[in-house]
């Protein structure tokens, strides 16, 4: 008989993130207390059906070498627990084109600390649009493409800095980010039906008013035409036949000769 397997300790699953953190610390990965977040609500279009807008990590990586590369890691909500920081960007294991079916997370928007100056430049663009590149979405030669996100999510992001191609500094994961979903055609019709009665009544009233206005305009035109024809018309005078008379002149008769 096989020995009965011991039940897994309930706290084993909760200890996994702590073990990953200790392992990352052992490899020299520093974690800073910064959580990426969406940009200010004053900016329109923070989330769309395939993009979202983040605040740039200004004044976050203070002691980072200038040649270090800062990457944005985009992952599904479930993949954040077991994310492996040793996966290098630009590889099939972190390619955007395989996300999220075969790859739970990808890396994109790589830059250096020089593009995240501190303090913020007045009037400068301090946001990152995630998912804005459409030209490279299907190009497997560009695995770090910042392509449109394939669904509503939710997603989580964090920044990871690589020094000498090795993980050096990372931030916390953001809160779950859910994108907008297109409304089904059935729901759109249902929403319109609630206002159909009012719209029909309003349309009927406007149609009646327009018909009355049009009838009045036609009546005014007809009346004006009749008035003008009555005042300006005249009867053509009949032709008058004038007879010519020859005048009979009376000539003096010569005096009778005696």
From TrEMBL:
It comes from the Eukaryota. One of its GO terms (cellular component) is membrane. The gene is Upk3bl1. The chain crosses the membrane at residues 199-223. CDD domains: UP_III. Residues 1-28 form the signal peptide. InterPro entries: Uroplakin-3 (IPR024831). This is UPK3L protein. The keyword Transmembrane applies. Keywords: Membrane, Signal, Transmembrane, Transmembrane helix.
């Amino acid at each position: 008989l096989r020995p009965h397997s011991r039940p897994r300790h309930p706290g084993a699953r909760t200890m996994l993130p702590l073990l990953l953190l200790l392992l990352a610390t052992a490899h020299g990965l520093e974690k800073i207390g910064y959580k990426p977040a969406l940009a200010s609500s004053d900016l329109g279009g923070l989330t769309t059906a395939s993009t979202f807008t983040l605040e740039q990590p200004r004044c976050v990586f203070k002691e980072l070498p200038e040649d270090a590369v800062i990457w944005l890691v985009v992952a599904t909500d479930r993949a954040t627990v077991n994310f492996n920081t040793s996966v290098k960007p630009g590889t099939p294991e972190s390619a955007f084109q395989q996300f999220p079916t075969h790859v739970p997370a990808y890396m994109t928007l790589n830059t250096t600390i020089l593009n995240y100056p501190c303090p913020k430049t007045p009037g400068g663009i301090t946001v990152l649009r995630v998912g804005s590149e459409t030209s490279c979405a299907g190009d497997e030669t560009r695995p770090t493409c910042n392509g449109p996100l394939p669904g509503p999510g939710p997603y989580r992001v964090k920044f990871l800095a690589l020094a000498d191609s090795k993980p050096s500094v990372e931030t916390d994961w953001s809160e779950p980010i859910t994108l907008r979903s297109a409304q089904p055609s059935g729901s759109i019709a249902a929403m319109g039906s609630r206002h159909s009665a009012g719209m029909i009544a309003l349309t009927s009233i406007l149609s009646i008013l327009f018909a009355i206005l049009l009838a009045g305009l036609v009546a005014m035109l007809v009346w004006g035409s009749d008035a003008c024809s009555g005042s300006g018309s005249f009867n053509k005078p009949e032709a008058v036949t004038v007879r010519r008379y020859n005048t009979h002149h009376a000539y003096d008769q010569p005096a009778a000769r005696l």
